[in-house]
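Input.
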Amino acid sequence: MKIGRNDKCPCGSGKKFKNCHLGKEGCVTVQKPTPPAPMPDLEELNPAKADVMSSAYWDKMSKRLPPGMRKEFEPIIAEMKQHIEIESHRKQIDDALQVLEAHRDEYSKLLKDTPELFRRSELLFGEEPFAEMRFSSADVHRAFDNAGYFPVSYNDKRFVEVATKSISFLLDDARRKTLTQRLLLTLPDYVTAGRFLDGWIIQHSADLIMDPQKNMVGPFLLVMFMHGFKEWEKQREQEQAADAVDQMPSDGSVYRNLSIVI
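Output.
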């Protein structure tokens, strides 16, 4: 672009071009081009030269992902990190499973007492290690939207039927695998603590998740769904109460038929 004699000089001095760099060399523009950002050192992320069975490797990979790729690749990275964790605890899990074999008969008796099995499972899976595995109220709402609204309460006889249908909708293969691995990671601590029946419930629940039988979800998934259902039910009650307040007449007529007995 041609610069006029009376235009400001591109060097940024504020002088006119004729009084500054006209006929001279070395004129620069006001804004120097920004140098390109240095390329990240991808050599350390080269699978051939790095420990891909290290969580640190996948943490670095996550940080180096461009923002537009994170949504697609972060679930894969999370799965790899969980796989690494389960493999690093493989021996402890296998040892725990071997210890449980000595208590198989005791667990077989518990299986015949369904109410006691579910009572114990509800207490077990209400503990902190399982909190992040619970279904959320958003999960329950999504399942109900898909299958149609189910007007049931937790005490309704149809709760197990509703929960089974909802769980089948919510669990894809990836989530089944994730829940199974996270369950097994809790197993060594419970066996070490001598809680063998609870260990059997955990191990059996993991088996049921990965190999679900028709119309059978097992106590773990039912308890996990129950937590989400109670949260959903509570939110629904709050919304209904808020709607009732909004619809209440403001002229005091709602109180006219009330009497106070002293």
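The chain has ten helices and no strands.
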